[in-house]
Each structure stands twice: as structure tokens, then as C-alpha cells.
Amino acid sequence: MSANEHFRVDRGSQLARLRSEPLWDLAVIGGGSTGLGVAVDAALRGLRVVLLEAGDFAQGTSSRATKLLHGGVRYLAQGHLSLVREALRERATVLRNAPQLSQPQAFVVPAYRWWQAPVHLLGLKAYDALAGGRSLGPTRWLGRSAVLASLPTIQPQGLKGGTRYWDAQFDDARLAIALARSASRLGALTLNHCRVDGLLAEGGRVTGLRCTDAEGGGSIEVQARCVVNAAGPWVDEVRRMADAGAPPRLRVSQGSHVVVDREFWPSDVGLLVPRTRDGRVLFTVPWQGKVILGTTDEPREDIPQAPRPRDEEIDFILAEAAAHMVRPPTRQDLRSVWSGLRPLVLPARKGQGRGTARISREHAIWTEPSGLVCVAGGKWSTYRAMAQEVVAYCIGQQRVPPGREGRGDRSTEELPLWRDDGVLMSALAGADAALAEGLTEQQVRFAVRHEFARTVEDVLARRSRLLFLDARAARDAAPAVASVMRAEGIVQPGLEDFLVLSEGYLP
Ligand SMILES: Cc1cc2nc3c(=O)[nH]c(=O)nc-3n(C[C@H](O)[C@H](O)[C@H](O)COP(=O)(O)OP(=O)(O)OC[C@H]3O[C@@H](n4cnc5c(N)ncnc54)[C@H](O)[C@@H]3O)c2cc1C
Q: Which is nearest to 94 in space by CA: 66, 71, 128, 76?
């Protein structure tokens, strides 16, 4: 299939292919931004690649980001200039390759004390300068009245003015689905709802993996020249499949968000609080008709599949909002609350402090003694460069050929990730049948046929983003979504599971 043809999902054929392929070049564990990026890069070079995801694509951290394509103002303050520069370059790459899923976003950093004005302005001008020719707009000082005109509900008491700068935002889960579709079009096998539960080894070297189809297709053994562990916060868990005593390489920190209606922040411009009372940054970002507030940074020892915001985290976000908004939201105003787990690579050097906020977000790629290649850390914003590095690393280690069919030098830098599905969509019934605001029967059919959706949660959390935007509306729509999915041939779309899960998104 060429990269320009449409991909129609047929799970039966996918499973048959998984069973029959004698030897893959690359087997990727984990379908978040990292693993999907690796699959696209490898498939573009013509390599035979399979990706297995335990749940749904982006079900882990990759659907739970603040949805910013950014260099990271905080990393600038920490002096990680090369990290910031690379991320700003990649910000431009996503904006170019996935224009329908990303756009520039203006922010204001308010100043409530005069000394903050030059500090913020100089810092953010430096941030913009690091973008070079890829700047999205000039960084400017706005006086008090200009800030109030732009952000009508900002706390005016003591406000001196603010610095306006530009970054970008995107739809994280939908970009992940675009990556899965791109990889498939390029020849990769990308299978969700198929957990890897063991690694195959010969003479102490990993030669493949064993996975289980969540829909009852049983256990399948997969042989591969190279296995890449891109399991995000679960990277250590997968490492221990090869070496039960492997010491941890990751620390995990939880970040939570709350979502409110636009009336609390009726502006297209976001707010960045550069230093909360406990020294973090906090964003208020308009997104898909609602407003996201977050995030927190709490170390976690356990690594749950579905992390929930703690009460203290919600209280913390609401207290910060109260300090910056004229009519702050209360718990009753929250439409949805959700958390993600940051996979942070432990610093090689000592002395970086104990808090997770100070561990660098830079990624690491390494090989275990068993030959298992691992990748962890980084950000969504830099997924593409990180994935390119992983594939180059596997090639450099002579674990996989440098490419097949003369495609070894292809780069994802110019690869469009979005296509117009209008014709495909219009062939499906149900355009006029609304199941919720912004969700039609036609879109559910499309999600099943062309976007790998297998459960009600897949549709309501990651094809539509309704669960993240308005958890009650998502619960109300769930039975109707399930019945369309059944009509599309999915016998058990997991309605009961979804109703239980969605409780956790209700504040
Ligand atoms: C609160 C928060 C806010 C963030 N905001 C931003 C932001 O605004 N901008 C930005 O650039 N970055 C942001 N990030 C960082 C970014 O989201 C992550 O760096 C990125 O999503 C990590 O992707 P990943 O693929 O490594 O991990 P994940 O997305 O977690 O993917 C790992 C996948 O592996 C699967 N898996 C695990 N075990 C197995 C197994 N045994 N078999 C098969 N599959 C398995 C999991 O189900 C999961 O889907 C944020 C992170 C957090 C936590």
C-alpha cells in the first residue's frame, strides 16, 4: 500500500499477519507518541515493523498532556538550551506536517510586581530567539489595560501588565491516531488492545516477544531482529520481563488537569503563571471550546493504568486559579479531571535534587544486557526527532538493516501526517445523527473503520475528546456510541467498563 492510499482497519487480517510473519526487523512495545513515532520512522525507511499496544493508542501518557507544542519555558529557566532549541524546531515540524491537529497559541505571563516585567520579557524574548526563523510571533510587553482587554477575567488587583509570547497547541490523542494511520499506510502493522506479556530469548538474548489479543485471539509469539521498549511509564516493567532484578531507570511523576467552561476564561489567549506558590508553572489554556488548567508534579511509586487526580492536586489547581481569576471555578464547575504519568529518566549524576520537577525531561536510549533497546523520557513536542534517533540507533548498532527497497535515507521531517478524510467520511451513514455535541454516528463509524477504535472508551476519550472535555456528556453519550459500534460489528464495545472508568473523570 502506498502512503497516499487510505487505510481501512481489518483486525482479523492484522492478527493473521501478526501470526504469519516469520521475522520482523523491529517489534515496538507501546503505542504512545514514542512508539508510534518509531513505527512511522522505521516504516518510512521500508523496515518491517510491528507495534503492539496493550490498550489503545495514546491511552497512557500521550492522551493526557497539557496539549502544548513547546520548547518549555521552565526548561529555559533551568538552562537546558539545546533541549529548548530542539523542541522549538520540532514545534514547527508538527505545525507543518499536521496543520489540522495543531495551531499557534498566544500566552500572557502576568506581572503583579514591577520587577517581574523585565525578567519575564527578557526571558521570553530569549525563548523566542531560540526558535530562530521558526518564531510564531513577536514577544511583547502589554500594559495593564491591554492585558485586561485581552484577558477579561484575569485578576486585576495589583496587575501591572504582562508579557505576551507565542507557542503552539495540538490534539495529542488525535495526533497519535494520525501516526498509527501513517505507519499503517507505510506498511507497518500497528495493533492496539494487544498486550506484550513476555519476551522470547535465546542464549540470554531477546529474539522476540509474546503478546495476547485482548479480544480473545489468544497468545501470539513474534520474532524480531530488534525489540524496542517504548512503554513510557511502564518501561521498567517491560525491562523486568528480560531481567527480573533490573534496577529502576525511571521515576514517575503524576500531573493533573481540570477542565472548565469558557465563561471562566473567555479569551483565545492562554495564561502562564511562571511560579506558583510551590515553585511550579501553571497553564490556563483554551482548548476545543473549553479551558484546561494544570498541571501538577507529584512523585508516584506505583504506576496505575488509569491514574486519578488526588484531591490535593485539584485543590491546588483551583487555589492557583482563584489567585488569578476574578470569578474562580469551584469543584462544582469542573467538567472533567484527569491525570498523566511522566516517565522521567533518572539522572546519571547525583545532586540534581529529589523533586521530580528537577529531573530533566530529556530522553535516553540504551540497550539492556539482553539486547532489548529501551527509550524513555522526552516530550510529545520532540517525539519525531526522538523516534528518528531511536531508529538510527538500532541501525547504528547493526540490529536492523539501514532500510529496505532503497528507502534507508528517508526522513519523517517532511512527512505529512494529516489527510483530508472528507470523501471517506461522506460515504458513511449517520452524518445527521448527533450522539453528543460535536459527535455524530458517522464519526463513530469512521473511528471504527479507519481509526482503530475498538471500545466505547477509544471513541469517547481519544477519537472524540469528549471524556476529557465533559465527562458527564461522555457518559450520557456512551450507550448510543456502544450501539453504533455493535452495528459496526464490534461484539463487546466495553460499555460497562467505560461507565466505571468515566466516574474517575467526574470531580
Ligand atoms: C501531565 C502531563 C502533561 C504533559 N504535557 C505535555 C505538553 O503539553 N507537551 C509536551 O510536549 N509533552 C507533554 N507531556 C509529556 C508527554 O505527554 C510524554 O512525554 C509522552 O506522551 C510520552 O509518551 P510515551 O509514548 O513515552 O509514553 P505513553 O504515552 O505512556 O505510551 C506508552 C504506552 O505503552 C503501553 N504499554 C505499556 N506496557 C505495555 C505492554 N506490556 N505491552 C504493550 N503496550 C504496553 C501503554 O499502554 C502506553 O500506551 C506531558 C506529560 C504529562 C504527564
A: 71
The model's pTM is: 0.96
CA atoms within 13 A on the CB side of 18: 29
Best mutation site among 363, 379, 386 for ligand 1, i.e. most ligand atoms within 8 A of its Cβ? 379
Atom of ligand 1 nearest to the CA of 52: 43
Ligand 1 centre to CA of 379 (Å) is: 8
Q: How far is the CA of 33 from the centre of ligand 1 (A)?
A: 6
Using alpha carbons, select from 315, 6, 379, 373 the residue that is nearest to residue 170: 379
Q: Report the alpha-carbon distance of residue 191 to residue 15 in Å, rounded.
A: 8
**Ligand 1: residue whose CA is nearest its atom 25:** 32
Please answer whether residues 95 and 164 qualify as being in contact, where contact means their C-beta atoms are separated by less than 8 angstroms: no
What atom in ligand 1 is closest to the CA of residue 67? 8
Grouping H, G, I as helix, E, B as strand and the rest as coil, residue 497 is helix
Three-class HEC string of 452-470: CCCCHHHHHHHHCCHHHHC
Work out the number of other CB atoms within 10 angstroms of the CB of residue 245. 5
Q: What is the Å distance from ligand 1's center to 23 Cα?
A: 28
**pLDDT tens sequence for the chain (507 residues):** 444 456 689 999 999 999 999 999 999 999 999 999 999 999 999 999 999 999 999 999 999 999 999 998 878 888 889 889 999 999 999 999 999 999 999 999 999 999 999 999 999 999 999 999 999 999 999 999 999 999 999 999 999 999 999 999 999 999 999 999 999 999 999 999 999 999 999 999 999 999 999 999 999 999 999 999 999 999 999 999 999 999 999 999 999 999 999 999 999 999 999 988 878 889 999 999 999 999 999 999 999 999 999 999 999 999 999 999 999 999 999 999 999 999 999 875 444 334 454 455 589 999 999 999 999 999 999 999 999 999 999 999 999 999 999 999 999 999 999 888 999 999 999 999 999 999 999 999 999 999 999 999 999 999 999 999 999 999 999 999 999 999 999 999 999 999 999 999 998
Residues with a CB atom less than 6 Å from ligand 1: 29-35, 52-55, 59-62, 64-68, 195-196, 230-234, 238, 255, 295, 340-343, 378-381
> Ligand 1 pocket test: which of 61, 89, 93 has the largest number of ligand atoms within 8 Å of its C-beta?
61
Q: Phi, psi (5° rounding) for residue 153?
A: -105, 15
Q: How far apart are CA 420 and CA 478, in angstroms?
A: 27
Q: Name residue, grid cell 520512522.
A: 41
What separation in Å is there between the alpha carbon of 114 and the centre of ligand 1? Answer: 39
Nearest CA to ligand 1 atom 26: 232
- Here the cell at position 243 is 531481567
Cell 460489528 locates to 489
Nearest-angstrom CA–CA distance, 56 and 35: 13
